[in-house]
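Fold it.
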Amino acid sequence: MEDFNKIPDSDSIENKLNDKILFDNLDISVIIDFFRYMSRQGPGSEEITRSALSFIEWPADFEAAGSGQKSSTAQLRIADMGCGTGGQSITLALNTSAHITSYDNSKEMIETLQQRVSELGLQERIEGVVASMDNIPFDGREFDVIWAEGSIYNIGFERGLNLWREYLKDGGYVAVSDMVWLRENRPDKIEKYLNENVPEMETPSFKLRQIEEAGYIPVASFVLPHDCWIDSYFRPMTALFDDFLQRHGHSEMAINFVKSMSEERDMYQKYSEYYGYMFFVAKKICSNSIINSGDAGGSTSGVINSSTSCINSGDPGGSTSGSTNNSNN
């Protein structure tokens, strides 16, 4: 078990606060002020973003980043929903030649994103837009890919998939990560904690059924490894506690926030075998195609009842059978 740094002034925290975590009662500005200093606002990594990206089949004449080959098609477009400070937006820009539009409803997050983009000279590739992911300014130009790492839960997994379908081209992709149960039999403590704190906590098979019912073919799914939580999320998070508390004068609200984040970290340390983040990559079915998601038991063997389906059986990681690369269902 890894030993993270303890919460600063833990004795005073325990004296000031009850054991109950009151994350929902925190001022959103306090939460933003903490997370805007992190390159990622949840578990993930550059490698994981690239892995998910590898399952997307681009047009044959699309220029891959660094390929040196010109594309004869118009530049492809990716929407990064709930982008935060843009860690995955930058990875997408560095690994494709697509234009990325990054949406977040926090002005401060977008400001931090724009600063990072400017420092990397990616201003022509990444555009930051202050907007809620369920109400983006849409000009009718559909996206080739909609990306959402650890953010879709804010509007609901099923709702997000159905809503974003309107913004996506036929044959376009969604790539989202969300938290799932990895085991059926779970200790009461973690079951209660996550059901109280994580909306729509479900199993991978349930999520896959939602993907099919929303009009997509699952292409790939995989669980994020341990280091995506530890190295990319909890370590940088813990390192920010001291400065954050000092900025907020060790106020009760700031201390409460640190306590809630520390509990999240400690729960994962103890119960990580029971839950995790899973990445789902899926392809939108053409508007004139119909998917039959099989039996009521939630089979992921989608059947296309159309001779004009835009599903390509050559998709890496998938086929018209809707098979996935997940062994953790």
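Residues 1-23, 66-73, 290-309, 311-329 have pLDDT under 50 and may be disordered.
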